[in-house]
Amino acid sequence: MFRWFRGNVIRGIAALIATVVVSWLALEYFVPSLPTRITIATGGKGTTFEYFGERYRQRFARAGVNLIVRETAGALENLELLKDPNSGVQIGFLTGGISNSEDAPNLSSMGLISNVPFWIFYPSSDSIAGLSQLKGKRIAVGPEGSGVRYTAERLLSKADINEKTATLLPFSGDAAVEALMDGSADVALIVGGSDAPSVAKLLTNPKLRLMNFSTAEALTRMFPDLVRVVLPKGVIELDPPNPPHDITLVGTTAKVLIRDDLHPAIVQLLAQTMKEEHQGPGLFQRSGEFPAIEDPEFPVSRIAADYYRNGPSFLARYLPFWMTVYAQRAIAFIVAALAIVFPVFGFAPRLYDWLVHQRLRRLYHRLRVVEIASQSELTASQIKSLERELAKIDRAARAVPLRHSHLYFVIKYHLDQIRSRLGKAAPLS
Fold it and tell me: Which residues pair with 326 in a beta bridge?
């Protein structure tokens, strides 16, 4: 009886351990643990991407998530870091026209976040009406490997401007502003929004002018990823108006890319951050225009698109971010456990019956050995040995559960039959 009880306890513990292990594995697959830190690739000091990276970091911190802002040369380096699974970078800013899903199949887009103009600033003492007038000048176009440099070279190439016809300086952001102010650069080409610190400094500096792209429409036809935008008269300062007249610019679209293995909860937090940061009106966008659930170059994350359309999930509306993650894991664990336990409970009675029948089969096997032996001529000691074996079988049969009493009485009947036969057997002299 004790062995039977101990065996059932061991099987129950094994089943419980198996249930917990399988449920935990299912939990880690469907709702993985929240990472302790996330890294975002931005840009150089004073750039729009560096500015937004800091803004994102502050919003993530309020949710209890440590977002590491990694300063880079710009969009091209960001792309390479995202493509490299060993770089530690899971999020990065990018501009249009640099890459697509064929080149980077492991990346998804969080949508477009803004129109990013190309600003060409030069001293107000000069007069520059077109790209061709930049020949022979020292132009701050950003370091090698940056999105600014890539964009600048694309634009300038249409005016036959390259390293042979001009001096291309590796300055961007604050460094480009300093170069322009101290005279080490004649022109600064900056890619970024009006809220970028470097752009804001130059727009309000009366010693500098902003070049008007009179051929903006033609450039957007040559480069389909470019857009035409207008900086309205007086939008920086109303009186006296700055700029003094409408200025036409060309620009590209900025986006946020993520690795496909980024934790789903972080993706939702990032979507929330982007919506809060970019949905307002701006110089080149209407309220609610961004973030846009579209990207012609990369597939948009399903989680991000759902958030932009429907807002936060039910749990996220009422719980802090960290608690939402634990609640999701708890729900997932319960669902996984129930998915395992319910079938087990349905199968348990049949398994129990099978174990009882297996036990009886073993007892009948021993009984048959005794029955075969009883058909031979036996000595008195052999008869006593067989009777002791019958007694052991009888004691073992008493462990058969009450719900299987019919099986107990069947084997009891057969035990009595063989015991009676042994009692009649005449021992050998």
Answer: none
